[in-house]
Specification:
227 residues; 9-stranded mixed beta sheet; alpha/beta; elongated; 30% helix; 23% strand
Protein backbone atom coordinates (compact mmCIF):
# COMPACT_ATOMS: atom_id res chain seq x y z
CA UNK A 1 0.00 0.00 0.00
CA UNK A 2 1.25 3.48 -0.85
CA UNK A 3 -0.42 4.95 2.24
CA UNK A 4 -1.61 3.35 5.45
CA UNK A 5 -5.41 2.95 5.55
CA UNK A 6 -7.43 4.87 8.14
CA UNK A 7 -7.73 3.12 11.48
CA UNK A 8 -11.51 3.05 11.10
CA UNK A 9 -13.99 3.79 8.34
CA UNK A 10 -17.58 4.20 9.56
CA UNK A 11 -20.79 4.51 7.52
CA UNK A 12 -24.24 5.24 8.92
CA UNK A 13 -26.74 2.40 9.25
CA UNK A 14 -29.92 2.34 7.13
CA UNK A 15 -32.18 0.18 9.27
CA UNK A 16 -35.32 -1.55 7.95
CA UNK A 17 -38.80 -0.68 9.20
CA UNK A 18 -39.41 -2.17 12.62
CA UNK A 19 -42.53 -4.02 11.44
CA UNK A 20 -40.49 -6.04 8.94
CA UNK A 21 -38.08 -7.14 11.65
CA UNK A 22 -40.97 -8.08 13.93
CA UNK A 23 -42.63 -10.05 11.13
CA UNK A 24 -39.50 -12.21 10.72
CA UNK A 25 -38.82 -12.68 14.43
CA UNK A 26 -39.21 -16.31 15.42
CA UNK A 27 -39.20 -17.59 11.85
CA UNK A 28 -37.43 -20.89 11.29
CA UNK A 29 -34.25 -20.38 9.33
CA UNK A 30 -35.18 -23.27 7.05
CA UNK A 31 -38.46 -21.57 6.17
CA UNK A 32 -36.66 -18.32 5.34
CA UNK A 33 -34.22 -20.14 3.08
CA UNK A 34 -37.21 -21.72 1.30
CA UNK A 35 -38.54 -18.20 0.72
CA UNK A 36 -35.29 -17.24 -1.03
CA UNK A 37 -34.82 -20.10 -3.51
CA UNK A 38 -32.87 -22.21 -1.05
CA UNK A 39 -30.19 -19.61 -0.30
CA UNK A 40 -29.21 -17.12 2.39
CA UNK A 41 -27.72 -19.23 5.18
CA UNK A 42 -24.17 -18.68 6.38
CA UNK A 43 -21.67 -21.54 6.20
CA UNK A 44 -22.14 -24.41 8.65
CA UNK A 45 -18.74 -23.48 10.08
CA UNK A 46 -20.39 -20.53 11.83
CA UNK A 47 -22.12 -22.23 14.76
CA UNK A 48 -23.88 -21.13 17.95
CA UNK A 49 -21.52 -20.95 20.90
CA UNK A 50 -24.42 -22.03 23.11
CA UNK A 51 -27.07 -24.06 21.29
CA UNK A 52 -29.54 -23.26 24.08
CA UNK A 53 -29.24 -19.53 23.33
CA UNK A 54 -29.19 -19.34 19.55
CA UNK A 55 -32.33 -17.43 18.57
CA UNK A 56 -32.43 -13.77 17.58
CA UNK A 57 -33.66 -11.44 14.86
CA UNK A 58 -32.53 -7.91 14.11
CA UNK A 59 -30.97 -5.49 11.66
CA UNK A 60 -27.33 -6.12 10.81
CA UNK A 61 -24.63 -3.70 11.85
CA UNK A 62 -21.75 -4.92 9.74
CA UNK A 63 -18.07 -4.63 10.55
CA UNK A 64 -14.81 -5.84 9.12
CA UNK A 65 -12.07 -6.52 11.66
CA UNK A 66 -8.57 -6.97 10.30
CA UNK A 67 -7.12 -10.41 11.18
CA UNK A 68 -5.75 -10.51 14.75
CA UNK A 69 -7.48 -7.19 15.54
CA UNK A 70 -10.87 -6.28 17.03
CA UNK A 71 -10.98 -2.47 17.03
CA UNK A 72 -13.87 -2.64 14.56
CA UNK A 73 -15.96 -4.64 17.04
CA UNK A 74 -15.60 -1.85 19.59
CA UNK A 75 -16.55 0.66 16.89
CA UNK A 76 -19.61 -1.45 16.03
CA UNK A 77 -20.51 -1.41 19.73
CA UNK A 78 -20.43 2.39 19.59
CA UNK A 79 -22.60 2.57 16.45
CA UNK A 80 -25.12 -0.18 17.22
CA UNK A 81 -28.53 0.37 18.77
CA UNK A 82 -30.63 -1.93 20.98
CA UNK A 83 -32.04 -4.78 18.92
CA UNK A 84 -29.27 -4.73 16.32
CA UNK A 85 -27.18 -7.77 15.41
CA UNK A 86 -23.45 -7.11 15.11
CA UNK A 87 -22.07 -9.06 12.13
CA UNK A 88 -18.27 -9.10 11.96
CA UNK A 89 -16.26 -10.42 9.03
CA UNK A 90 -12.77 -11.40 10.15
CA UNK A 91 -11.36 -13.12 7.06
CA UNK A 92 -12.14 -16.39 8.87
CA UNK A 93 -8.97 -15.80 10.89
CA UNK A 94 -8.35 -18.63 13.35
CA UNK A 95 -5.21 -17.75 15.29
CA UNK A 96 -6.62 -15.16 17.70
CA UNK A 97 -10.03 -14.61 19.24
CA UNK A 98 -12.10 -11.71 17.92
CA UNK A 99 -13.79 -11.13 21.25
CA UNK A 100 -14.16 -12.43 24.77
CA UNK A 101 -16.62 -12.22 27.61
CA UNK A 102 -16.06 -8.58 28.58
CA UNK A 103 -16.78 -7.13 25.13
CA UNK A 104 -19.72 -9.50 24.76
CA UNK A 105 -20.93 -8.28 28.13
CA UNK A 106 -20.84 -4.69 26.87
CA UNK A 107 -22.77 -5.69 23.74
CA UNK A 108 -25.37 -7.36 25.94
CA UNK A 109 -25.55 -4.34 28.24
CA UNK A 110 -26.28 -2.12 25.24
CA UNK A 111 -29.18 -4.32 24.18
CA UNK A 112 -27.55 -5.95 21.16
CA UNK A 113 -29.59 -8.96 20.03
CA UNK A 114 -26.64 -11.11 18.94
CA UNK A 115 -23.12 -11.34 17.55
CA UNK A 116 -22.19 -13.23 14.38
CA UNK A 117 -18.63 -13.69 13.13
CA UNK A 118 -16.56 -15.97 10.95
CA UNK A 119 -13.77 -15.54 13.49
CA UNK A 120 -13.00 -17.13 16.84
CA UNK A 121 -13.95 -16.21 20.40
CA UNK A 122 -12.62 -16.96 23.88
CA UNK A 123 -13.87 -17.01 27.49
CA UNK A 124 -16.70 -19.37 26.63
CA UNK A 125 -18.14 -19.69 30.14
CA UNK A 126 -18.09 -15.93 30.56
CA UNK A 127 -19.76 -15.28 27.21
CA UNK A 128 -22.49 -17.81 27.95
CA UNK A 129 -23.03 -16.14 31.33
CA UNK A 130 -23.66 -12.77 29.67
CA UNK A 131 -26.69 -14.18 27.88
CA UNK A 132 -25.59 -12.74 24.52
CA UNK A 133 -26.27 -15.19 21.67
CA UNK A 134 -23.04 -15.67 19.73
CA UNK A 135 -22.36 -17.47 16.46
CA UNK A 136 -18.69 -18.02 15.62
CA UNK A 137 -16.28 -20.36 13.85
CA UNK A 138 -14.59 -21.69 16.98
CA UNK A 139 -12.70 -20.98 20.19
CA UNK A 140 -9.09 -20.02 20.96
CA UNK A 141 -7.58 -18.34 24.05
CA UNK A 142 -5.22 -16.19 21.93
CA UNK A 143 -5.98 -12.47 22.19
CA UNK A 144 -6.20 -9.80 19.44
CA UNK A 145 -4.85 -6.28 19.19
CA UNK A 146 -6.98 -3.10 19.05
CA UNK A 147 -5.09 -1.05 16.48
CA UNK A 148 -7.14 -1.50 13.29
CA UNK A 149 -7.73 -1.11 10.48
CA UNK A 150 -11.43 -1.89 10.32
CA UNK A 151 -14.79 -0.75 9.01
CA UNK A 152 -18.32 -0.40 10.36
CA UNK A 153 -21.46 -0.07 8.27
CA UNK A 154 -19.92 -1.11 4.96
CA UNK A 155 -20.91 -4.37 3.19
CA UNK A 156 -19.01 -7.51 4.17
CA UNK A 157 -18.88 -11.14 3.12
CA UNK A 158 -18.70 -13.97 5.62
CA UNK A 159 -19.77 -17.56 5.58
CA UNK A 160 -20.21 -17.31 1.82
CA UNK A 161 -22.93 -14.65 2.05
CA UNK A 162 -22.86 -10.94 1.24
CA UNK A 163 -24.22 -8.87 4.15
CA UNK A 164 -25.10 -5.17 4.16
CA UNK A 165 -25.95 -3.13 7.21
CA UNK A 166 -29.72 -3.05 7.54
CA UNK A 167 -30.20 -6.57 6.22
CA UNK A 168 -32.25 -8.64 8.65
CA UNK A 169 -30.35 -11.38 10.49
CA UNK A 170 -32.36 -14.34 11.76
CA UNK A 171 -30.92 -17.28 13.68
CA UNK A 172 -31.86 -20.48 15.42
CA UNK A 173 -30.08 -23.70 16.34
CA UNK A 174 -29.79 -24.59 12.62
CA UNK A 175 -27.73 -21.50 11.74
CA UNK A 176 -27.89 -17.89 10.59
CA UNK A 177 -29.87 -16.57 7.62
CA UNK A 178 -29.47 -13.14 6.03
CA UNK A 179 -32.61 -11.58 4.58
CA UNK A 180 -31.56 -8.65 2.35
CA UNK A 181 -33.40 -5.51 3.34
CA UNK A 182 -34.57 -5.01 -0.25
CA UNK A 183 -36.28 -8.43 -0.18
CA UNK A 184 -37.64 -8.37 3.36
CA UNK A 185 -41.23 -7.40 2.47
CA UNK A 186 -41.32 -10.09 -0.24
CA UNK A 187 -39.97 -12.70 2.18
CA UNK A 188 -42.57 -11.78 4.81
CA UNK A 189 -45.35 -12.46 2.28
CA UNK A 190 -43.80 -15.66 0.93
CA UNK A 191 -43.26 -16.90 4.49
CA UNK A 192 -47.02 -17.16 4.98
CA UNK A 193 -47.31 -19.67 2.13
CA UNK A 194 -44.22 -21.61 3.24
CA UNK A 195 -45.53 -21.93 6.79
CA UNK A 196 -48.95 -23.06 5.54
CA UNK A 197 -47.41 -25.72 3.29
CA UNK A 198 -45.11 -26.95 6.08
CA UNK A 199 -48.02 -27.15 8.54
CA UNK A 200 -50.13 -29.12 6.07
CA UNK A 201 -47.36 -31.60 5.26
CA UNK A 202 -46.42 -31.98 8.93
CA UNK A 203 -50.00 -32.97 9.76
CA UNK A 204 -49.96 -35.58 6.98
CA UNK A 205 -46.63 -37.03 8.17
CA UNK A 206 -47.95 -37.31 11.72
CA UNK A 207 -51.01 -39.00 10.25
CA UNK A 208 -48.87 -41.72 8.65
CA UNK A 209 -47.91 -40.33 5.24
CA UNK A 210 -45.19 -42.41 3.57
CA UNK A 211 -44.90 -40.82 0.12
CA UNK A 212 -45.82 -37.28 -0.94
CA UNK A 213 -48.18 -36.98 -3.91
CA UNK A 214 -45.56 -35.37 -6.16
CA UNK A 215 -43.22 -38.32 -5.62
CA UNK A 216 -45.95 -40.85 -6.46
CA UNK A 217 -46.72 -38.97 -9.67
CA UNK A 218 -43.08 -38.69 -10.69
CA UNK A 219 -42.32 -42.37 -10.05
CA UNK A 220 -45.29 -43.33 -12.25
CA UNK A 221 -44.39 -40.90 -15.04
CA UNK A 222 -42.27 -41.27 -18.20
CA UNK A 223 -39.57 -39.25 -16.43
CA UNK A 224 -38.53 -42.45 -14.67
CA UNK A 225 -37.00 -45.22 -16.81
CA UNK A 226 -37.13 -48.66 -15.28
CA UNK A 227 -34.55 -51.20 -16.45
Amino acid sequence: MIEDPPILTVKGIDRPPRQLVQALAGAQTGHLVDCMAGRGALSHRIKPLDAKNAVFCGPAVTAFAYPADNLAVFAALAEAEPGDVVVVAHDAFEHTALTGDLLCGMLKNKGIAGLVTDGMVRDVAGIVATGLPVFCAGVTPNSPAKTGPGTVGLPVTLGGVHVASGDIVVSDADGVVIVPQARAAEVVETLKAVRAAETSLEAKVKGGLTLPDWLKEMMASPKVKRV
